[in-house]
Each structure stands twice: as C-alpha cells, then as structure tokens.
Design a protein that fits this description.
The chain has two domains: 5-48; 83-233, Peptidoglycan recognition protein-like (Lysozyme-like), CATH 3.40.80.10. Helices cover 42% and strands 9% of the residues. The protein is built from eight helices and five strands, in the order αααβαββααβαβα. A five-stranded mixed beta sheet has the order 3-2-4-1-5. Bound molecules: zinc ion. Residues 87, 197, 205, 207 line the site of zinc ion (ZN). Zinc ion binds at residues 87, 197, 205, 207.
Length: 234
C-alpha cells in the first residue's frame, strides 16, 4: 500500500505541527521526499505513453471464386445452347435419381432435365445435380413445343418443390443463380432467354409455379441483365 505511507507522514507532520506550534520550520525540514507526488508523476508519465501502431494486421487476401463443381464443364463439344428453361418438380421431394426413374418409366431415354437442384427432401438443400445428358451434351426432354426447339437448344434445370405459392429456398435460389450465371457466361445465352417453362411459346403449363415465375421475371433476369451490363462496361 504505497499511497498510505505519505498520508501517514502527512498526518504525522500535521500532528507534529500542531504539537510543535511555532517550531513549524524544523518539522517541515524533516519531512521525507513526498513519494505521493513521485507516484502521481510516474502514473501520469505512464498514462501518456503511446503504444506503437499494430504491425500484425492480417494480410489482405484477394477474394477468389471457388472452383467449378464437378461435371459442370462437359468433356465433349458444346451443343449450341440458346435457352435456359426453368422448371419446378411440382412434388414435395425428389432428386435426379428419382426423376430419372420416373422419366424412364414413361419410356424416355433418361432424366429429361440437364440439372436438378435439390430442396433437402431427396438430396441436400441447394445441391446441384448434373444429369446424365449434360455430360453428353444431349438434347433435353423437358419442354415440348411444336418444332421442339426448346428441347433441341434449351438447357433444362429443375428445382425440386412446388412453387405456385412460395419461393424456392434461399439455398436453391443461390445455387440456381450460380448455375445460371455460369451457363449464360459460357454459352453466351442472353438474359431474355432464361425463361420459366410456361414462357416457351406453345406450352400449356403452370410450371415453374406462379411465385417462381415472378422470381424469374422480376429478380433473376434483372440480375443477369445488370451483370452483363457491368461485364460490358469493364
Ligand atoms: Zn416444366
């Protein structure tokens, strides 16, 4: 308790003064060096000492896009894709394997879509499954219209779920955005050609559901347009 000592000294000095009366001069001469002042001065000096600026800031690492998922880039020559056609499965659950089985049961060659985006019921939420026909760059079997142009040159993406009254999950939307960005970049597909199934002339379907269709028209396509504007401005 270093602060107590000077106080005691002061108290003792005061007592001495009181006792000594006019002998005050002598008593003051006997006072020790006031350590209280020394402490205060030292404390003030310590308070104003500035710490050196930090030199241990973490290095800034450039943001890197992750590697493309396996299977997105086919090993064979690209088909001349013109459209991306978006679907919902209109089922609560499902996966590429489940729909492949359904489509084969109808007598089709294999899964009709090129990609399936899972919803957590049949596969992990947001997982992009690559269908067998994508690796072969084979025409689709998902958007039948007279002349069959949308199957011949349309990439079919199906989101598992029923989106008449609700949006695909955030995980599905994020995966869809990434996949569509990749496909439009790689194959030079215009944002206007990223469509909901019902938009293909000659179709008569509710697919991909009212809410998802609004999302395609009001969110996804504007996002792609903005993105291509920015790319052109670079
Ligand atoms: Zn459809």
């Amino acid at each position: 308790m270093p602060l107590n000592r000077p106080l005691i000294v002061i108290v003792m000095a005061a007592a001495s003064v009181a006792l000594a009366g006019c002998q005050q001069g002598r008593v003051i001469e006997e006072l020790p060096v006031p350590t209280l002042i020394e402490h205060s001065a030292r404390a003030r000096r310590l308070r104003v000492v500035k710490l050196p600026p930090s030199v241990t800031r973490p290095p800034v690492t450039p943001r890197r896009e992750g590697a493309l998922p396996a299977g997105w880039v086919p090993a064979v020559a690209a088909r001349q894709w013109k459209w991306i056609v978006l679907h919902h499965s209109a089922t609560d659950s499902g996966s590429a394997r489940v729909f492949d089985k359904m489509h084969r049961a109808k007598g089709w060659d294999e899964l009709g879509y090129h990609f399936v985006i899972d919803n957590g019921k049949g596969g992990p939420a947001g997982r992009v499954e690559v269908g067998g026909r994508w690796a072969k760059q084979k025409w689709g079997a998902h958007c039948k219209v007279p002349g069959n142009a949308y199957n011949e040159r349309g990439i079919g993406i199906c989101l598992v779920g029923e989106f008449g009254d609700r949006l695909p999950s955030a995980a599905q939307r994020a995966s869809l955005r990434r996949l569509v960005e990749f496909l439009t970049d790689r194959y030079g597909i215009a944002p206007a050609n990223v469509i909901g199934h019902r938009e293909a002339p000659g179709t008569n379907t509710q697919c991909p559901g009212n809410v998802m269709q609004r999302y395609v028209g009001l969110t996804l396509r504007p996002h792609l347009r903005q993105r291509s504007r920015l790319a052109r401005a670079r």
